[in-house]
Specification:
This protein is mainly β. It has one domain: Jelly Rolls. Helices cover 6% and strands 52% of the residues.
Length: 278
Amino acid sequence: MKKVKSIHSAIETSDGAGVKLNRVFGYNETPRFDPFLMLDYFATENSDDVIKGFPWHPHRGIETITYILKGSIEHQDSLGNKGVIGDGEVQWMTAGSGIIHQEMPAASVDGIEGFQLWLNLPQKDKMTDPRYGEVKADMIKTLEKDDAQIKVIGGEFEGVKGAIDRKELGVNLYDVSIPAGQKYTHLPGDGINTFIFVFKGFGYFGTNQDRVNEKDAVLFEGEDGIQIEAVTDLRFLLGEGRPLNEAISWGGPIVMNTKEELKTAFREYDEGTFIKHK
């Protein structure tokens, strides 16, 4: 069975136009979480913490996955897409060759909670045509296994397919809940890099039974399954994907393979030639 390789505590920070959030991992941890680049978790009862949102900005070379647990966010982009995702819904956007968009949270008396996860694209797909999609809550399938409840957001779990298919990238994304006192063993695929981010409760993970607390992310090493024991009611985001093992050149919202590609992207943005697909 796998053991815990490392534990990463989320750091409180801000991004966009001052959105308060918890950065679970990002630029400095990229090789460890490959093919995932960044994970942000935002949870607040005060809409003022997030209301200024993420005004118009570019992306190239990545995919962004936004998963809302509570509240809502409005999306607009340079392809002409407009949409609102709310409780239990997902926005999965392929930036590819280039997209300019904005994401603006709506004011809510109940606050807002959710995630944004960045997924790196392979070098061969960095300049693919951009795409945008929304996944409504009723499109996300949920199943029970060994006292755990698993929402299949993307990829596949034991024959149950998520609404988003990235089989070519080997990517799966699950929202997992385990009641207090129960145990669950997750079986990742061969050659897959797996992370877990706990956002409710705490539990013991891996063969060494390392304690993982709320707002901690954990990586694993070794073979076979991941043992998990919930001490309190436990809920976590589980992502897995096949490492790309490619060079990364990162410049804010744009992630390419070389510095020259980054320079080209920002020059094109300044010149107004950034958008390749309309």
